[in-house]
C-alpha cells in the first residue's frame, strides 16, 4: 500500500488488518478509527500515524516500525490497548509521540522511540526492554506511570533528554540495567521508585517528590556531580537497596524529609557527599567518599 496521499480507515467495531504500508512510497497521514482489533503485520511509513481512534492495536507479525520522520509527523497511539509480543520502533523526527498503556494485556517486545519532539506518556508500559535514549523530551502526563521489563529482565534507558511531569514514576526491571539522565529538571516528577538488581546508572540530577532506591541493588554515580532533590515536597530519599559507588559528587537535598543510607563508596569511593535535610538522616553502613558534609 503506497502513494503520497492521506488514508483514513473507519470500521466501527469492525477489524482492521494492515501489512506493510508506505514501504515503497510513504503515504500521507494514516488515521484509523475502529473499536475492533487493528492488527499490524508490517511497518508503516507515513507523514503521520493517528491510532487515537483505534481501541485495540495488536502487534502481530515480526518487528513493527512506525516511521514519520521524513515529515516530522505525529505518532498517536492513545486510542486504547497496544499489545503483542513484537518489537515496536517509533521514529518521528521532530514530531510528537503520544502513548497510552502499552503491553498491559500482552507485554510487547522491545520498545524503541526516537523523537526530538515531545514523547507524552499517559499509561504504563510493559515490554521486554524500553529504549528512550533517542527521545529528547519525555512528559509523564497522566497518572502514575510504571515501566516494567522485569519478566524479560530487560534494560530501561531514559538518557535521551529531559524526563518531566508531576506524576509518579516506577521502574521495575528485574536484573535489567536502568540508565537515567536528568529527571524532573523542568517540572519535578512525583515519586521515583526504582527496583532492579542490575546496575542503576545516574548521569544527571533528579528532582522528585520522593526518591526510593531501596529496591536498587547497584547504584552507579556515572557522569558529573549528581543531585537528588526532594526538598520542594520534603520527600524521602532512600538509598538502602545496596551499593552506591562511582567517583562523582553526590548532593542530597530533602527539606524536612528523611534520608536513609546504606553503605556508600565500598567498591569505588564517591566524590564529595553533601546532605541537606532537617529530617532524620539514617546511616546503615560505612561511607567512603572524597569528603562528607552533613552540616
Report on this model:
By secondary structure, the protein is an all-beta fold. It is built from no helices and 26 strands. The chain has a 26-stranded parallel sheet that branches. It is elongated, with a radius of gyration of 21 Å. The termini are far apart. 47% of the residues are buried. The model has no long low-confidence stretch (mean pLDDT 97).
Work out the strand percent: over 45%
Low-confidence stretches: none
- In DSSP terms (H or I, runs of 4 or more residues), the helix count works out at 0
Task: Look at the structure and give the mean pLDDT.
Answer: 97
Distance between the termini: 67 Å
**Percent range for helical residues?**
under 10%
Provide a concise account of the structure shown.
The chain has 295 residues and is an all-beta fold.
Features:
295 residues, 26-stranded parallel beta sheet
Strand-helix topology:
Elements lengths: L6 E4 L5 E3 L8 E14 L3 E16 L4 E4 L7 E3 L3 E3 L4 E6 L3 E3 L8 E14 L3 E16 L4 E4 L7 E3 L3 E3 L4 E4 L5 E3 L8 E14 L3 E16 L4 E4 L7 E3 L3 E3 L4 E6 L3 E3 L8 E8 L3 E3 L5 E5 L2
Parallel strand pairs: 1-3, 2-3, 3-4, 4-5, 4-6, 4-7, 5-8, 6-9, 8-10, 9-10, 10-11, 11-12, 11-13, 11-14, 12-15, 13-16, 15-17, 16-17, 17-18, 18-19, 18-20, 18-21, 19-22, 20-23, 22-24, 23-25, 24-26
Amino acid at each position: 500500500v503506497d502513494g503520497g496521499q492521506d488514508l483514513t480507515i473507519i470500521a466501527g467495531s469492525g477489524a482492521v488488518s494492515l501489512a506493510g504500508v508506505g514501504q515503497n512510497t510513504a503515504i500521507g497521514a494514516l488515521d484509523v478509527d475502529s473499536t475492533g482489533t487493528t492488527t499490524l503485520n508490517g511497518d508503516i511509513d507515513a507523514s503521520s500515524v493517528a491510532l487515537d481512534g483505534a481501541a485495540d492495536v495488536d502487534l502481530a507479525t515480526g518487528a513493527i516500525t512506525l516511521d514519520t520522520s521524513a515529515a516530522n509527523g505525529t505518532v498517536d497511539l492513545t486510542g486504547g490497548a497496544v499489545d503483542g509480543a513484537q518489537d515496536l520502533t517509533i521514529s518521528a523526527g521532530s514530531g510528537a509521540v503520544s502513548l497510552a498503556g502499552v503491553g498491559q494485556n500482552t507485554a510487547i517486545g522491545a520498545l524503541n522511540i526516537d523523537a526530538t519532539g515531545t514523547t507524552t506518556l499517559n499509561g504504563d508500559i510493559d515490554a521486554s526492554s524500553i529504549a528512550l535514549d533517542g527521545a529528547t523530551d519525555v512528559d509523564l502526563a497522566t497518572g502514575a506511570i510504571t515501566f516494567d521489563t522485569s519478566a524479560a529482565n530487560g534494560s530501561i534507558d531514559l538518557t535521551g533528554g529531559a524526563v518531566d511531569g508531576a506524576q509518579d514514576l516506577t521502574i521495575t526491571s528485574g536484573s535489567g540495567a536502568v540508565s537515567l539522565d536528568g529527571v524532573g529538571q523542568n517540572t519535578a516528577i512525583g515519586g521515583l521508585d526504582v527496583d532492579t538488581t542490575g546496575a542503576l546508572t545516574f548521569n544527571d540530577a533528579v528532582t522528585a517528590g520522593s526518591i526510593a532506591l531501596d529496591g536498587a541493588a547497584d547504584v552507579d554515580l556515572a557522569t558529573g556531580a549528581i543531585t537528588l532533590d526532594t526538598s520542594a515536597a520534603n520527600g524521602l530519599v532512600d538509598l538502602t537497596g545496596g551499593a552506591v559507588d562511582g567517583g562523582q559528587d553526590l548532593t542530597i537535598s530533602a527539606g524536612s524529609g528523611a534520608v536513609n543510607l546504606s553503605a556508600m563508596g565500598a567498591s569505588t569511593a564517591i566524590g564529595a557527599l553533601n546532605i541537606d535535610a532537617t529530617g532524620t538522616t539514617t546511616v546503615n553502613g560505612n561511607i567512603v567518599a572524597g569528603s562528607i558534609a552533613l552540616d
